[in-house]
Amino acid sequence: MQQKPARARILDAAHELMLTVGLARATTKEIAKAAGCSEAALYKHFTGKEELFIEVLRERLPGLTPLLNGLTAEPGRNPLEDNLTEIARRAALFYEQSFPIAASLYAETQLKKRHDDAMREMGTGPHLPIEGLDAYLRAEQAAGRIHPDADTFAAASLLLGACAQRAFAYDATSDGEPPQVDHFARRLARTLLSGITA
User: Fold this and answer.
1) Residue 146 β-bridge partners
2) Cβ atoms of 130 and 162 closer than 8 Å
């Protein structure tokens, strides 16, 4: 069986270590060792842990950007509720899988600052899904499927904020389980639509 390319092995190892030991404690040396390569080989593909974290989020977790871009390019395609349900489903899964990785960022001020700086430099960040969903909702508004007075930015923030909240709000419940993702996404889409549809 052929071994995966080094870049893919590094991303797999980084994803696994960031999930198990946390971003703050996952060193490039440990990631390289888990990937079966040298630390120098890791640096041939990535500038450092900050870029690795961003690429793990981009390549190993459910993606929102391609979905949002496609929907924005073709407003009016598919029922609005179905589109928002799929957006909410992917967002809920993304936050569920990324929260354990990103949580340790907030424990170390310098690490958080380095990551924020790296995201700005790479032109990415957690604000982009909100802006992307806002753009999609504005496209649907222009197509007449969303009320002309609806605040699309607030609607985008509400939907994605609820998805992010689902990722960490249920650990203390009796079963420690968040609401089932498909049911949650559908209910969220319907509730949002009741306030913004034309």
Assistant:
1) 197
2) no
Quick one: 162 exposed, middle or buried, by C-beta within 10 A (0-12, 13-18, 19+)?
buried
pLDDT band at 100 (very low <50, low <70, confident <90, very high): confident
Write down the residue that tokens 């993702």 correspond to.
181
Pairwise CA distance, residues 189 & 118, whole Å: 33
- What is the distance between the alpha carbons of residues 108 and 112, in angstroms, rounded to a whole number? 6
Residue 148: which residues within 8 A CB-CB, separation 6 or more?
Answer: 141, 198
Q: What does pTM read for this prediction?
A: 0.81
* Ordered DSSP codes for 59-101: HHS--SHHHHHHHHHSTTSS-HHHHHHHHHHHHHHHHHHHHHH
Q: Which residue has the tokens 């600052």?
A: 113
